[in-house]
Amino acid sequence: MASVLKYVVAGVSRCCHVTLVRAHSVTTPLHQGVPGSLWKLGRLNHVAIAVPDMEKATALYRDVLGATVSDKVPLPEHGVYTVFVELGNTKLELLHPLGEKSPISGFLQKNKAGGMHHICIEVDDINAAIADVKAKNIRTLSAEPRIGAHGKPVMFLHPKDCDGVLVELEEA
């Protein structure tokens, strides 16, 4: 999210009569267009967390923290079970392996306690976004978009091209 610096007077020193200035970050509008592109970046849809024990993780968010959680849903085409935790401004997606070739199995082998797996950001045109990021040498993890947990097209961007973060783009 881009920020613009806005200067405001924070106070005046009594002994030296020097005006002190402090910079504040001002958030730009929600939908940001990439300069010269045909698509717009939208809101954070969810943060995905790989969990070794889905029932325990679901109970933490539902019973301890009081969040509304979805039922556990298998997504065999992605090799995961998912549970969504509703938050006021976004969601958490709990991920657990489904099947031997699950990408979450490998993640959990390296991170026994689980952890943040990816972030998902909405875009208004998935195909235009994919073409644009590929033109900018950002690798994708599949040749074509697939249908994600919300029934919408998604594409994952390679973490080595995104500052170490696995980024999922989802059509809004």
Structure write-up:
- The structure is a single chain.
- The protein has 172 residues and is of the alpha+beta class.
- Helix content is 17%, strand content 42%.
- The N terminus is likely disordered.
Characterize the overall form. globular
How much strand content do the residues show?
Answer: 35-45%
User: Structural class of the secondary elements?
Assistant: alpha+beta
The biggest sheet, with number of strands, parallel, antiparallel or mixed sense and barrel status, is: 10 strands, mixed
Give the low-confidence spans. Answer: 1-22, 24-29
Percentage of residues in helical conformation = 10-25%
> Overall mean pLDDT score?
86
Number of discrete helical segments = 3
For the CA atoms, what is the radius of gyration? Answer: 20 Å
Element-level helix/strand string: EEEEHEEEEHEHEEE
Query: What is the number of E strands?
Result: 12
What is the CA–CA distance across the termini? 18 Å
Briefly say what this structure is.
With 172 residues, this protein is an alpha+beta fold. 17% of the residues lie in helices and 42% in strands.
Question: In terms of topology, how is this protein built?
Answer:
Blueprint lengths: L2 E10 L6 E9 L4 E2 L6 E11 L3 H11 L3 E2 L3 E3 L4 E7 L4 E7 L5 H8 L4 E9 L2 H10 L10 E2 L5 E5 L9 E5 L1
Parallel strand pairs: 4-8, 9-12
Antiparallel strand pairs: 1-2, 3-4, 4-9, 5-7, 6-7, 7-8, 10-11, 11-12
